[in-house]
Structures are given as C-alpha cells and as structure tokens.
Amino acid sequence: MVRRRLAAAGALVAAAALVLSGCANQSGSGPAQTSAAPAPAQPNNAVLPAGDGQGRCAPGTSIAYVGTLAGQNAALGQAIANATELAVNQHNQANQGCQVTLVKADSGGTPDTAVGPTQAVINNQAVLGIVGLPFSGESKAVGPALNAAGLVNITPSATNPGLTANGWTNFFRGLGNDAVQGPAAAKWMQGKFNPQSICVIKDDSDYGIGLAQAVTQALGPQVAACQGDVKTNQKEFSATVGQVQQANPQAIFYAGYYTEASPLIQQLRDAGVQTPFVAPDGVKDEQFVVNAAGSANGSFLTCPCVPQEGFTAFTQAYQQAYNTPPQTYSAEAYDAATILLQGIDKGANSRPALLNFVKSYNGQGLTKKFQWQPNGELTDTPVYVYRVDGDKIVTDSPITG
Amino acid sequence: MTATTETERAPSSSGGRFGELSRWWNARSRPQQWGLLVPVAAIIYLLPVLNPPIITTEPATSFPIALFNAAVFALIAIGLNVVIGQAGLLDLGYVGFFAIGAYSAAVLSSPDSELGVRFPWLVIVPIAMVITMISGVILGTPTLRLRGDYLAIVTLGFGEIVRLLADNIDPLRGNRGFQDIARPGGTYPDGSPIFTQNDAQGFYWLAVTIVIIVLFLMGNLERSRVGRAWIAVREDEDAAELTGVPTYKFKIWAFAIGAAVGGLSGTLFAAQVGFVNNQRFDVTTSILYLAAVVLGGQGNKVGVVVGAFLVSYIPDRFQFEPEYRFLVFGLALIILMIFRPQGILGMRQHLLTYGRQAYQKLFGAGTGVAPTSLTPSSRPAGEPAEAVPDDRSGSRPQGGGE
Amino acid sequence: MRPPPRGLDDEAPRSPGRVTTSAAGAPRESVIHTLTAVTDLVAQGSGPWINFDVGLFLDRFWANTINGLSYGSIYALVALGYTLVYGVLQLINFAHSEIFVIGVFGVYFTFLALGFQPGQTPNVPLAGIIANLVLAGAVGMILAGVAAVILERVAYRPLRKRNAPRLAFLITAIGASFVIQQVFRITRGSNPEGTIRLLPPEPLFRIFGAPVTNLQLIIIVAALALFVVADSFVNRTRLGRGVRAVAQDPATATLMGVNRERVIMITFLLGGLLAGAAALFYLMTIPQGAVFNGGFLLGIKAFAAAVLGGIGNLRGALLGGLILGIAENYGQSLFGGDWRDVVAFVLLVGVLMFRPTGILGESLGKARV
User: Leucine-binding protein domain location, by residue (chain A) (predicted)?
Assistant: First the structure.
C-alpha cells in the first residue's frame, strides 16, 4: 500500500520535474571549454613502445604488472595496468617478430595479499620484468623476494624514499621520491607566497606521511606549525576546514591523493577559505578537477614529471582504449613498460640480461629522462608546478634546483 | 574428538551425508580413527609438494602461500570459535587480537621499531600471546556484562579502535609499517633457510603443525570443566549462573584464550610476510573471520577449519580473474549459507566428558552429531522474544542426529 | 611538529597491549572521563600524535554543533533502517549500507538522466533545483526501497524458511554486501563518479556566530520530517501496528492474523526508503560520495548510532545519529581530524557501559504507543 502510494507520488513528482526543469538542464550543460595554454610538444626523442619495429624475441616472453586491480585504491592500479597493457599492445602491433605477453597479477594493494601473487609471478619463468608495485607498503613486503629472484621491477608510483635504501639491486623507481618533491614544493611555496604560516595537511598513507614530513622539515617548524590529518576515504572535512580557518595561513599544502583532495578543497572553498591550495602529484589528476566541481580552479600541483600536455598521442590512445583519460602515474607506467619492452627487443632474453639493460638504460621517456643511480633512484628528477586553470591542468613553471 | 581433524575435510566438498559420516566416524574406536588420520594428515602436509591440478591456485598466485594463508586463517577460526562457537559470544572485533599479535612481533623485532630490540621469533610468540591474552581480559572485563548484539558492536568498535590507534600513534608507524620482522630459524640439510618469504612451504608446515597442536589443546579444553561451562553459558546463561557456574569468569576465559590464539596467528602471519602495517586489520577482515566460523559450523572445530579454508581459498582460487573474484566470493557465501545454514559440518555438542559413550547409550551406536536445527544461541537467554519463535524450541534438548 | 624519529624512549614500552588498555579499559568512567583518560594516556607531554586543542574546540563549538546535526541526520536516517529490521527480526542487516549505496547511485543516475554534467554547478532557477532534487530523491528512495525488499527475498527469506541460526543471516548479509559492491565496482569503476552539485551551500543566517547553510537547514528539517513520518507510520497506522505486533511477539501476532512476511517486507521497504532519502542528503553534502565502497564506514557509524540510541527503537536511532554526528565533530576539533572515528567508537563503548541497552533502551515492540 505504502509502496503504491509512494510510487504514484514519485511518478507525479517525476513528471512535474521533467516539465519544470528537464529542458533547462539540457541546455545549460556541456563542459565549458577554456582555452588551454599552448602545450609544449612531447619530447621528440621520447622512446615509444613501438620501438623500431625490428624487435625479435622468443615466443611467450612476458612482462608482468603486479599491483592492485580490485578492492581498495584499485583506481590507481587500474590506470597503471591499463597504461602497461597499452604499451605492450602498441609494441606487439609494431613488432611482429616479438609478441610479448602481459601477465597481470592482482596484489590487492596490501602487504599481506601481495606476497602470493608476486611469488607466482616470480615462479613464472617467462616473466622477465615487472611494472609495479604501485604502493610503498606492498613494495616493502615483497621487495626481498623480488630481489632474491633477481627480477627487475620498475615502480611507477611508490614514492617512499626508504625503498631504495634496502640494498635491493633489482628495484628501480620511475619517478622522484618524496625526498625530492617535498623540499622542492616547500622551496617553491616559500618563493611564491613568502609565507608566515602554511597548513600542511596529510592523509594517513605512506605517501602522504612521508611527503608531509619532507615539506614540514623544509619549511621549518615555525612556518608549518599548522598540521592537519585526514584519513583515506574520508569525505567530510569540517574539522580540517575549521583548523585552517583558525590558523589563517598563506597557503595550504595537502599531502595525499586526489580522492580526498577534491572534497577537501570543495569544502574549504564552500566555507569561504580562499587560501591558495598546493598539492603533490598524487592529486595531479583530471579526476581532482572534475570532482572538485570548479573549486579546484587556481590550485597549484607539484609533480616530479615533465608536462604532459604534449602526450597527445598517448592520451588519445589511452582514451580510445579504455574510454577514460589517463590518470596519475599512467604515463610513468607507460614509460616503465616501454623500457622493459625495449630491453626485450634489444635481445635481453633472460632476467639477468633485462636487469642489466635497465641498470645501464639511458633514454628519454614521455615523462622524463630515464637513467638510474646504482640504488635505483633516477639521476635527474625535475619537479614542475602545474596550475588548475578552469577545468584543465596547465603547466605553471619548473622548480629550478 | 580432537583427532577428528582432517578426515571430514575431504567429503565436505561432496555435499550432504555429513551426519552419516560423522556417525560412522564416531563409531570407530580410537586406534581405528588414528589409523585413518595419519594418512590424511600426511596428504595435508604434502599438499604444496603435490600441487594437485584443479585444486592449485597457480599460476595466478603461489599455491604454498595460499595454503599458508588458509592455515593461518584456520588458526584464527579455531580461536574465534572458542569465543563464538563455544561460549556463544558474538565477537566482531577479533581482528584486533590478530593485529595486536602481528604488531607485537613487529615492535619486538623490526629494525623500524623504536624499541631497538630484535627478539627471535620463538621468544616473540609467548610474549605476543601474553599481550593479546591480557588485552582480551581488558576488553572483556567491562564489555562481557553486555549481551548479544551489544557485545557485537562493542567488539567491532574495539577492532576499529585498535586499527585506528595503529594508524594515529606515531611509534606504531601507521601505513609506513615495520619491515624485516623476525622469522623462525632453521635450515634444510643443504643449508638453505626453511622459513623464507618466497618459499612458504616451511611456514605452511609450521602453521599446520600449530593448527593440529591447538586443535588438540582445544579438544581437551572442551572436555574439561571449562569447556562444559562454556557450553552451559552458550545454551542458557541464566540457568548456568543459577546452577553455580561462574559465567562471567568463564566468559572472560573464553575471551582470553580466543585472544591468545588470535595473537599466535598474528605472529605467524607477521613472520611470513615479514612486514606489518595498518592495512588488512579492518572490519571487513574481522567479518571474514566470522564468516569462516559460521560457514564451517560454529562450535565444531573441524568445521571451522574447513570454513576457514574455504573463505581464504575461494578468493585465491579465483585470483586468475581478479575483476570478479570478490563477486564470486560474495555469491559463494550466500549460496553456501542458504544450502547449509547450520554450517558445513554443523555443530557438535559435547555436553558430556564422555560424550561419545553417552550418545551411544542414549541413541544407539549410530548417533553422534547435533541436530541441524539446533542453533548456537549467540542470542543469550535473557533476550526478548525469539526472532523465529517456532523453529527451535522443540529441538534444543536433544543431543544428536542430523 | 613531528617528533624526531628517535628519542621517544620513554614512550617505547607502549607496545600494542598498552594501547588496548587505553581503548578498552578506560570506558568504566563517564564518557568525558573516558575521553580524557584516553587522551591523558596517549598524549603524555602534549603528545605529538594527538592534539588537545581546547581553543579550536571552543572556537568551532557552534559550527561543529550545526554541522554535526546535519551530518548526524544522515546517520540517523540510515540508522532507522538498521533499527527497524533489528526490531522486527533481531537481525543486524549488514547489507543495509549497500542499500544506501544503491540509493546514492540512484540519485546520481537521476541527476545524469536529467541532463546534469559532472564538474559544473548548473545555472537553474531555485524552483527547478528543488524539483530536480525531489525527483532524484524519490528515485533514490524507490530504488533503495525495492533493493531492500529484493535483498530480503534473496538473502534472508530462504534462510528463514530453513530456520537457519541467526548468525547465518549475518553471513548472507555480508555476501550480499560483497556482491552489491562488486557489481558497482565492475560496472562503474573504482573512482568516485564525477561531481554533480545542484545546490552549492550558502550561509543563510548565523547562530552564535556560526553560519547555517541552506544545505544544512534543508537536511536537518527534511530528516526530522521523514523521521516524524516514519515514527507515526509505525506508531499510528494499521500497518505500523502490525510491525509492532511482530516485533513484540511474532507467533502471537501471526495467530492474531498479522501477515508476518508482509510485515517483514514493509520493514525492509521502509528502511530502504529512508536510506534512499539519506543518500540524497549525503550526495548533496558530499557530491563526491558516489563510489562503490562509499557506504561502508557510514553504515558502521549508522549501526553504531542505532545501538547508541537503543537498537530497535526509532527515537533512539534519531537521537543516536545526532549525538554521534555532533560528538565526532567535537572530537575531531579537540584531538585532530584523524581521531574522529576513535571518538565515535569510544563514545559508543562508554555509553554502553552505563546504559547497556543504549540511551533510550531497546524494543520496537514496546515503543510508546
């Protein structure tokens, strides 16, 4: 009875609302196109997965993506897996003589669940190299096993500085770590805002904690006296907003990922806090801009990655294949996969050979120049500042060391 | 009945007829039971070596590690079964004890710990068990006066608080975690270490051995005065109190012993992974432990081992299809529960020390298991009207027969 | 202000065991004592990982109160669903949080169908916005209501037919919860849906200096109105009498001609409808909320709220939701944002120590007639 009555009421309301506003909504929508700044071209010497098309390798040769595919934080893992897959597909299309298989293993994103699938990949002798693992926690957990197996792995997103301090010879980081980005971001904020006080807000991830620590250290305890904490998956930030309102800083630095950054900045702006918002590469994502629904406009994003506006070919191919624009770390994963595929094309047909190839690799990728120090950190990691302009992320300036 | 461990595992997959099997099993003499058990145990020990097709989780995920995880899960389920199945206390925060065990191992041995000590694993285990036991008593003392679902939510809150504290308190390192946690020592004859991260075989054997030992101890405990008191509390707390059972004390005992087993499993887990951070200790995990116990048949320690195996194994088995594995798992939970609401093996009721002989005298040689409809009153006696009033009033007093 | 990595040796013996001490042992005292006890223990020497910011607490007191009331209203509406089902079946409907998520997606898809695009705040006259919101809310409510009824059919009824033990219901609920979450994840991906916000918050007036926004006002008033409707449905209508009768004594109620199955269906439907309404308010407050696992924490909090107020008691659910919402907000100003959930759970444990059946006591059946 209730249901019938309610359904009837619902239908009535529906009809009324459609008449009232349906048309208005239709006409009022459609993304407003702001003209993006002229994009710098993709580095023209960038190595692409297709290579020279002359690659030769044994049938069955594989590389693997190990990382989260389902469960928490799966979005980030999916973006990395997709970019890796895209690289492999492009490579296979161009190199008829070398068909590389991509093995995907779901690590679940947590240390305990990562061990089993990683071990399975290690046991699979056809796998010569790994793109992954995305998170620092799971990387710490499986690092010893991968090192013992001598299986090269390039992480496109794990930024904990400690990962390269374990003496693992097979671990390479495809981006700058927190110890690179944190001080650079702090330096840039000091120059830009000449701040008396900056609120450093961090999430509870390894990434957020490490980065906030680096930024706070570089700013000094006086400037970064205002410290806020949020939790992964938190959606309601009234306490943090209140804290910022009370501290009234010259800038806010948020160390975390875009999932929390969007509602945070929206709630800050809704509460009338117009303080400049600075965030790291974990936030530099189209999703951040879209989900903040206009509030993100004017935010600054630091990133140890070269401007991506020029990657039109990659962006388009990714969009076409997965019906979504590439996300944070997609390009890094694409580069990492490219390097492994290059090695295979160039005749590295065993794990030690590929490991040696990566060790001595020196080449331009989409995101940066790739050459590693013996400990697995990149030799040169430029940090850039980006800016949200309307609904686009545009390049602001490089941070010069 | 300790020794019934593994025999019933194999037929559990074939469905149905558990009652007859159980009856047949109980009709065997002890030596006969042992004669059957030894080869079964041997097969279980050899599983990672045999790596049987179809059952194996490879190539998607390492089979020895999947087995090890299942064995740890089984240990957890045995511990939780003391709390839920034996004493009838609904605990949704059991993961808290597992976490405390794992963190004890981490804090006492990881170089990341601010204590700066590195105890060997064998030293850590008793310390961790004592710590978890104490925390069980501390949690139990104020909360065990609550009944039924209130206890459930309070324990759930406790589990969350443990996880959140691990997150918020700096020395516990939150998401950053502790690396390089101590492993048990020991080498194979050729000098290579038995217990390493990449070869879970040694850990699996260790875990299975611990599971068997704990099963023995639990079996003895069940037949002791403590076990009888638990069952009395579970069946009717008020009546137990009236007949002179100090219910509160025994409930705390159940909590403490359950917690100690949880802590033991935590140290085992921490040693194998070698890394502990605040992930994995969430409510969902806690609820999965509960699922293992209920699925297997609460109150039946062999049942919960089977349940734990399934809950741990199903997602691993479908690892090759990561997109859909949790969907499959969710469906499997619903279907299994609808077809075996009392759990795969159902509850056994060892109300008497010499249960088997008593059952035989009462019901003839063939009987030995609890009726299917007999429910583990996690609902304590004092609560208002039964949800399903017409279902179980008649079946409670009986002791056997499915 | 982070502590140096070393030099905390005096803190060192605080192994996890001690931590538990603070969490579980303290709640013997009053609620406030509990909180201070935990703080004292954890924050010795102006502890580095926990604040005790009385200034911020006082400064934000009224803003937190208003905000807590608004967020607490959402808890309360979801908690009503837990409480109704518990009252009638003595069953913790663990899948209720997923019913809420279905409501959230229902609201979101309605927005999409009405032509709104993610990313912008649309330019539609107020009347139009209200009509759109009401429509989306209605769709969300109907979807969540129907989903709740289907859930009952698929996951619970077969068990009832087989006289399953009570915990079995818990497990199918968990299974159903997995299935619903995964269906959303597989079909919609694991990113939150793009933000669609129809009504940006505007301060309307101030209470003790704290602004009250249009959103907060709408949510609090609408939630109270819905509560009154639900309460009078249960307490004043014929069907509601049936619900109370079954809650009190299912066997006798059946003998008296109450159709038990129908009452159960109505209970689930009502809980679902309220969750759908909560979904609308949630999405209005947090437009980024449409994501497959978005209901999990909120569901646990709402369940805690229901227990806090006295599970099985409609008014208890409302009270519990509001108190939890406010207390959380106070707590996170006082201790820092990351202590919010701890405060919520410690409050729950503390209250149950003194009122073991919640603030208002349990029982839907015995609810005032």
Answer: 62-390
Q: For residue A381, what are its two tokens? A: 């990691």
CA B178 – CA B18 distance, rounded (Å): 45
* Domains, chain B: 63-350 (1.10.3470)
Contact A196, A239 (CB under 8 A): no
- On the question of a common fold for A62-176+308-367 and A179-303+384-399, the answer reads yes
Kindly state the tokens that stand for A144: 């010893």
Q: How many CA atoms lie within 13 A of A29 on its CB side?
A: 18
CA–CA distance, C204 with C222 (Å, rounded to integer):
17
Fold of A179-303+384-399: Rossmann fold (3.40.50)
**C194 neighbourhood in chain A, CB within 8 Å:** 287, 290-291
For chain A, which residues make up each domain, given as ranges? Answer: 62-176+308-367, 179-303+384-399
Number of Cβ pairs < 8 A linking chain A and chain B: 107
CA angle centred on B328, ends C154 and B276, rounded to 5°: 120
Neighbours of A377 (CB within 10 A): 20
Q: Give the integer Cα–Cα distance in Å for B305 and B308.
A: 5
Bridge partners (DSSP) listed for residue A385: A302, A397
- The three-state secondary structure class of A19 is helix
Q: Compare CB distances from B69 to A116, A144, A160 and report the shortest one's residue.
A: A116
Identify the residue with better confidence: B234 or B257: B257
Note whether C165 and B376 are within 8 A (CB): yes
Phi then psi for B340, rounded to 5 degrees? -130, 70
pLDDT < 50: residue spans in chain A: 1-41
The CATH number of the domain covering residues in A62-176+308-367: 3.40.50.2300
pLDDT digits over B359-396, tens only? 566 665 544 444 433 344 443 433 343 333 333 333 33
pTM of structure: 0.83
Distance CA C249, CA C82 (A): 19
Interface touch B167/C49, C-beta < 8 Å: no
Nearest CA in chain C to A9: C138
Q: What confidence tier does C364 reach under pLDDT thresholds 50, 70, 90?
A: low
CA angle B91, B94, B98 (to 5 degrees): 170
Q: Pick C165's closest partner by Cβ from B146, B157, B376.
A: B376
Instruction: Report the run of H or E that residue C213 belongs to, with start and end.
Output: strand C210-213
